[in-house]
Amino acid sequence: NAGVTQTPKFRVLKTGQSMTLLCAQDMNHEYMYWYRQDPGMGLRLIHYSVGEGTTAKGEVPDGYNVSRLKKQNFLLGLESAAPSQTSVYFCASSYWGQVYQETQYFGPGTRLLVL
Amino acid sequence: GNSVTQMEGPVTLSEEAFLTINCTYTATGYPSLFWYVQYPGEGLQLLLKATKADDKGSNKGFEATYRKETTSFHLEKGSVQVSDSAVYFCALLNTGNQFYFGTGTSLTVIP
Asked: Cβ of A90 and B51 within 8 Å?
């Protein structure tokens, strides 16, 4: 089992460019999440998905779009990158079983720098 | 609403010292509580969890007790090692299955 993987590991963008971050999990988890991690801010939820074909907004969704066309993949898109989107992005997944005891499994992160 | 507040870092300790990292929470309903650890260059890993009041989570010598009366979930370890150097995140999981993370506390253990 690879667990949760993220592609790419690091990327530099110019303001206005677009890109897609890919998250893949091989644990058959229903739930998937995208977070961003900024210094002094902890992790903040961008978007999440409760199953294939569904997505929902988290705490900081503006400037991002997501898609969950396959159960194992969760894509995060930046249509027009801004310097404020410089961050480390983490994907996570969890199995929707006993709601109160769910553990999230995290990928290694994608470091994004927007110039 | 839901939120997690944890002590500011960074924390620097000598090897074998006692560790406490404070965490308090605000939540609607009855959340589960977690500590995650992030080693340099890696993603977050679950360290321990507690799902109801008075539960104690423990792992790798770390412990935390779910205290509903003080809305706290403080992390403790009796004797830290250099390998414990990492960033520690307190988190709650609410009834809507959403996680709320604290800002993280960086721990450095020196030999």
From this structure: no
Residue A93: count other Cβ atoms within 10 Å of its Cβ: 26
Q: What is the CB-side half-sphere exposure of residue A48 using CA atoms within 13 A?
A: 20
pLDDT tens, position by position, A49-80: 989 999 999 989 999 999 999 999 999 999 99
B14 close contact with A: CB closer than 8 A: no
- The count of C-alpha atoms lying within 13 angstroms of the C-alpha of B44, restricted to the half-sphere facing its C-beta, is 33
Query: Do A43 and B89 count as a contact with CB atoms less than 8 A apart?
Result: yes
| DSSP string across A51-112 | STT--EE-SS-TT-EEE-SSTTEEEEEESS--GGG-EEEEEEEE--SSGGG---EE---EEE
Which of these, B74, B75, B99, lies nearest to B3 by C-alpha position? B99
The upper half-sphere exposure of residue A62, i.e. CA atoms within 13 Å in the direction of its Cβ, equals: 2
What per-residue string of b and e applies to B83-105 under the rule 16 or more CB within 10 Å gives b? Answer: ebbbbbbbbbbbeebbbbbbbbb
Q: Kindly report the nearest CA distance between residue A17 and chain B, in angstroms.
A: 26
Q: Is A78 on the interface with B (CB under 8 A)?
A: no
B49·A109 Cβ contact <8 A: no
Task: Kindly tell me the sign of the dihedral angle through the C-alpha atoms of A20, A111, B81, B58.
Answer: negative
Mean pLDDT by 10 residues, chain B (111 residues): 88 97 92 92 89 94 96 97 96 81 94 94
